[in-house]
Queue: 4 jobs
Job 1
Amino acid sequence: MATALNSQFGIKGQLSFREDASGLIVAEIDNALGRAWLCLQGAHLMMWQPKSQAVPVVWLSRDTKPAVGKSIRGGAPVCWPWFGAHATETSFPGHGFARTVPWRVIESGIEPDGATRMTLRLAASEKTLAQWSHECNADLTVIVGETLRMELKTENTGATDFVIGEALHTYFQIGDIEQISVTGLEGGEYWDKVGGSNLRRQDGAVSFSGEVDRVYINSGAECVIHDDKLKRRIHVAKSGSLSTVVWTPWVEKANKMGDMGQPDGWREMVCVESVNAIDNVVTVAAGTCHTLIVEYRAESV
Ligand code: TA6
């Protein structure tokens, strides 16, 4: 499989495919501007490091063990076609099935600035159709360079409208969760999922001294992660997304999860997710497309 992918989509010196120990196919991107790993299962970008940064910007748990049908802890999980628990089916996977099923490469190329581009398509199967019978295509395009751009496109190829929830559920690498803040959400309303689900309003920057699990609604704003320890800012710009999720599990939940990188990997990550969920789920009309786009940039300060 890797050999066929290398001959059809490989780019000499920039993009190659390998099969890992668990039988999953991983794309390795390394160009003059940045490097990344992407697992074809889930179209799951696992890590991204611009060449200007000594430390990766997108975090991957050192405890994650990629396996067929299992979600990877870290990177930029694709949550689709629903976010969180399924509305009615408790047996369906949280955050949708997209991140644990095979996607196939449909295109690759080099951008004018030398960044590497690759597009993957979710391959419909008996499993996916059993949970989502709508006729549609889901494509993810990643552009890896000094910035990281990801475009999640949903195309309704059927005759009836459907509603999706979705997210690029990205884990960012930070120095220490207690030495960062997130700006861009000031004054916004959010569903606070810690201790129930209450609607609250953000006062000032987001800082962290315990578990945070918030769905900010009706917000297309760019967020910035201010990292005092790593002395950098990470810009999280987006379009086609009206929800933003900010999440840290903190120590108890992280220990229960067991794959956050013992003993304190949870301190080195924060999720700032570009989402459409709850009040902001998206109706994709028959014959139309909807695209959620993010662009990440890190600057040393
Ligand atoms: O986006 C935050 C969240 O919904 C949290 O509630 C937590 O469940 C997190 O996602 C991780 O979910 P996962 O299914 O990847 O373990």
Note: The two ends are 43 Å apart (CA to CA).
Job 2
Amino acid sequence: MLIKIKRRSDILPSEITPPDVYEARRRFLRLGAGGMMTAAGLAALWPAAARANAKLPNVTKGPFSTREELTPYESVTVYNNFYEFGTDKEDPARLAASLKPRPWQVAIDGEVAKPGVYDVDDLIRLHVLQERVYRLRCVEAWSMVIPWVGRPLSEVIKRFEPTSRAKYLRFETLLDPQQFPGQRRRVLDWPYVEGLRIDEALHPLTLLAVGLYGEVLPNQNGAPIRLVVPWKYGFKSIKSIVKISLTEQQPLTSWAKSGPNEYGFYANVNPQVDHPRWSQARERRIGDLFKRDTAMFNGYADEVARLYAGMDLKKFF
Ligand code: MTE
């Protein structure tokens, strides 16, 4: 692996810490040194920290990280699937400035004792962010290795006290053709909707991400908050979430609606079940010349296979 050492002249203006971010970081350190930090103190840090490319403070290493070589930041942020901006891989990075990730609210409703509408900065607390390096396997048979920053979804959801009737989670992306030019074309039935069974949602691998590479999530990667479900095809990892509903019935998801024979609700990475139009046995890791074999559950079988014990995974694809 070639490691590029940056010379002073290589540093982009955008990499130089703006004074307000620097000041917020200093405040953060001062508060941290005192050992106590109030929720209000944390929230006050966000306006500076919420700027794309701002470093996220106080990120600890989380569990489940792979030691595989990381996909370069440049590939993670310019080769994207985010149809709200267009269907070409470069469209999201090119057009993402129209998305305004602050202020941003997320509604939690349905089968919970404590529904409500929350500011994204109250939903995700800065002091408990973890870095998790996960493989992401796209249904289009390419993959990446990405250092996400976020919190387990389970920790966030449990605060709203799911009722005994909550069997599934339904996630919705923002609907706003002003911010998402791709929504002016009916490529999908907008807004983008995804879903998980509740045990999948509460599994410790399932992450709500607010950053990558130690920085605030770039718009093209789903700012300000997105899902990451590493044992499932990438389309389950819904971006720019505005609503999470706990439901009794399995939700109808965007891709299952547009192509029920091609995209199942479970969408577990499975090299033995081909997509009707191509094989899923192998994949191309972005940056590699040669393809590699795809692993069952994207290599997370030890962690998640038990969730599907006794299920016919050809039927429930
Ligand atoms: N979420 C929304 N709202 N819209 C999308 O088009 N694409 C999905 C998923 N989440 C998509 C989305 C697909 S197909 C993939 S592979 C991943 O996002 C890609 O995430 P990345 O661009 O951050 O690598």
Note: The first strand starts at residue 60 and ends at 61.
Job 3
Amino acid sequence: MSIDAGCAAPRQTLSVPEARRIILDAVAPVGGHEWVALRACLGRPLARDVIAPCNVPAHDNSAMDGYAVRAEDAGAGETRLTVVGSAFAGRGFSGMVGKGQAVRIMTGGVMPLGADSVVIQESAHIDENSIVFSGPVRAGQHVRRAGEDLTEGGVAIPRGKRMGPAELGLAASLGLAEVAVARRLRVAFFSTGDELASVGRPLAPGEVYDSNRYTLHGALSRLGCELIDMGVVPDRPEALEAAFLTAADSADVVLTTGGVSVGEADFIRALMQRLGEVGFWKIDIKPGRPMAFGRVGKAWMFGLPGNPVAVMVTFYQFVLDALLKLSGVDPLPERPLMPAVCVAPVRKLSGRCEFLRGRLFAEDGVWKVKPASAQGSGVLRSLSEANCFMVIDAHRGDVAAGETVPVQLFEGLI
Ligand code: AMP
Ligand code: MG
């Protein structure tokens, strides 16, 4: 298995794209589906293609308010046609449009038999029971053809597409009350650390509130995962072993935070190597260099660092797309980046790809980014105040004010 790359050479440093590739190559969709009512599908990936059971639109209809006519009746000069009826949306014209005739039609009105084109009302004037307009009519003008949006029997929404607002509407436009979505991924997660305290009670000296489980709760809920929150597990081998086994038994994916840094890694590493096949990776990423990835039983396991910002950075760069792929979505090979002018200097050592927190804004028609003042891997506030990551390549050093840097927007990511 390709995760061996991490196991076989634990001292070797992986680049961010290499680590992403190994993870995405290793995981495959878990399969399974359920039929879910349309409104409840939001955010969930389709497990099967949605096939159009009918044409959309179902009938040829008018794209504009105007008059349904026969194109051949119009000449190069002035044309006069007798208005013989009307066709409104939902209330059609039952007769036939004959030579020299027109039917008043509103947007969405079904094209009457015999008519093939629409003359918009702004181009025609009414003269008693007739309309008069100038110039030729192009056959089919301002007509929306039956099946133009979706053809009966064709794929309306492909498998693997996440149901967004447009897809809910699209499925509804086909009259579908429910669609087959991938079964929810079961994700078990716990925090490790003797210093961690749960919210809602005072801190004892040396304790820190466990925030990582809340960050992960939010991120995983947005993905529509079924959450198995296992709380805080102390840094004791028996407790960790029991937690790993329970988690791996009940979940598709196990996420842990903390305990993978240099001091503690050997301790958990020994445990993980006994329980499963897990690589401990050094990734040239900041924050978040140490990370574990592999399998315990049938579950995929991600051992994220403990620092709160590092948790979010590694989650978004490595875990998110793996979860999407596991639930049948084809993630983009690379995250979209946009260039922005960095307005303040940033100190950076070469060697690690840094995901700095920043605020993207527009000024005088130029996209600019202001780096957060505190970039420590424990400073969650920097993430809360930011709206993008500035992605600074591993090979380069300091960023000067005025330099253009690539940024990754949280919108659509977080
Ligand atoms: P570790 O990777 O376990 O050495 O943790 C690195 C740093 O992150 C330490 O300062 C921990 O106290 C802190 N940390 C670890 N887990 C959490 C957590 N769940 N919530 C908040 N801080 C944490
Ligand atoms: Mg720890």
Note: The chain is about 20% helix and 30% strand.
Job 4
Amino acid sequence: MALLFLSTRERAPVWHRILTEAGEEMVDGEAAVTDPAAITEIACWTPPADLGRYPNLRAVISVGAGVDHLPPLPPGVVLSRTLSAGIDAMVRDWVMMAVLMLHRDLPAYLQQARQGLWKARPVREAASRRIGILGMGRIGRLVADSLTTLGFDVAGQSRSGAGGPGSTLFRASETEAFLARSDLLVCLLPLTEETRGILGARTFAMLPRGAGLIHAGRGGHLRMTDLREALDGGQLSGAVLDVTDPEPLPADHWLWSDPRVIVTPHVAAQTNPVEGAQHALAVIRALRAGHAVPGRVDRERGY
Ligand code: GLV
């Protein structure tokens, strides 16, 4: 029984040390597989082209928080996404940065700076800025708590998540009311058939005029043409995006040079190798003991 590791070179020695110290076997890379029947788990971002090569595979572990990039798995193979306090905190930090950038007009000040223009804009207090978080899973709740601590007026919408102390929770049926009170809309949704394209003209039209968009979900959530139209028409005043479609964003894409938009190259979180390996270890042990697998994904639901 061994875990096949298919992630980045710099993570490999850390994973190897942690798994070996725990008495588990790790095979580093498909080229090192001598007996495919011995592979019981695969940890990867990009899975092997032929999963059927591994007859005793029990689980595929995504080394990130998302799983939308993974193909259907053979029947009986469990899919687990990495649960890590580090990922949660990194995304939280990125969202805080983006919220504060839009809350304090940074895109406009960057533009003024390029012109050497010293000009104050009205400053709003956090309590007067209503933030709406789409997706109140573990990361959404952490973001909500931190924004609440800073004094923002926070609400979240979720199909299955929960609210937090100090933030209001809107159900899936309350989209209109939720969006109508979102001066800054934060997207932390998983990408599923239901959420693909959700950040488009219909959603933007329900936001207060001049709202801002903060997106750390997936590029597939966002309709780029609708974003441009909403910015040009003034329905949206700015956006901070960590994810785009396509990725990487081509060098000549309009998003790069639009002064109302700030783009970061899908870096909100990067899995810490220690936490990644510890998660994999927890998956292996749960499978062996017949316990619930941490981070298990419901493929029907998509997260
Ligand atoms: C990054 O987007 C991840 O899913 O970890």
Note: The CA atoms of residues 135 and 158 lie 5 Å apart.
